[in-house]
Amino acid sequence: MKLIVGLGNPGREYQHTRHNMGFDVIDAFSDMIGCDIDRHDFKGSYGVLKQSPYGEPVILLKPETYMNLSGESVRAISDYFKIPVEDIVVVYDDMAIPVGKIRLRPGGSSGSHNGMKNIIQHMGTEEIKRIRVGIGEPEFSGVDYVLGKPSEEDKPLLQDAVDEACRALRDYLKHDWSFAMNHHN
Questions:
Q1: What would you report as the CA-atom Rg of the chain, rounded to the nearest whole angstrom?
Q2: Where are the alpha helices (DSSP H) in 82-128?
Q3: Helices (H), 34-69
Q4: Segment 7-54, tens digit of pLDDT
Q5: Per-residue b/e over 123-152, b at no fewer than 16 CB within 10 Å?
Q6: Exposed e or buried b for every residue in 87-106, given b needs 16+ CB within 10 A?
Q7: Do 45 and 8 meet the contact criterion of CB atoms below 8 Å apart?
Q8: Bridge-partner residues for 40, per DSSP?
Q9: 132 forms bridges with which residues in the sheet?
Q10: Which of 60, 62, 63, 148 might form a disulfide with 73, Cβ 3.0–4.6 angstroms?
Q11: Is 175 a catalytic residue?
Q12: How much is the pLDDT for 141?
């Protein structure tokens, strides 16, 4: 069983902000693979694709703990379904990557991302696969920037990044993580 987690903040005021790129990717990927995000438990919204064309079930999760406590939701669902950390992928925004670009990594530090930092704390390892979606450097305060809506100029670039992240997730499920990194980095 694979667990794909998209990070963001719950609530209307945060919809489609830069900090919710993980939620946007999960929503788009759920449409791509036909998996409804229609369950609420484990401090999040999630969907299960039992009859996956990828050979094993896939769970898509959007933690509803607010970003800085995302690890609580990830730990709860991974413990319940007995999903090992090597079968988890986390998707989130990254200011250090240019707008519209994505980066796949097999692990590493959280950088300055508090959601990823909390997941690492709860899972007890930095070896967690991740897709970082570039939102670019802020022109002003980082908090105001990440919680703000993208400019009209950035919206198509971010949509391209969401689409690319979905293709990377599909390739990971069809092949493996190395294949996805080689084709999408």
A1: 15
A2: 114-123
A3: none
A4: 999 999 999 999 999 999 999 999 999 999 999 999 999 999 998 888
A5: beeeebbbbbbbbbeeeeeeeebbbeebee
A6: bbbbbbbbbebebbbbbbee
A7: no
A8: 45
A9: 92, 103
A10: 63
A11: no
A12: 67
Q: Which of 84, 52, 91 lies closest to 180 in space, CA to CA?
A: 91
Phi, psi for 4 (deg, rounded to 5): -115, 120
Kindly list the strands in the beta sheet with 58-63, ordered across the sheet, starting from the edge strand earlier in the chain.
39-41, 44-49, 58-63, 2-6, 88-94, 129-134, 102-105
Q: What does the pLDDT look like over 115-147, one tens digit per residue? A: 999 999 999 999 999 999 999 988 766 678 888
Length of the chain, in residues: 185
Structural tokens at position 34: 């036909």
Alpha helices in 106-154 (DSSP H): 114-123, 142-146
User: What sign for the dihedral angle of Cα 144, 127, 88, 25?
Assistant: positive
Whole-structure pTM value: 0.96
Annotated active-site residue in 19, 40, 113, 122: 19
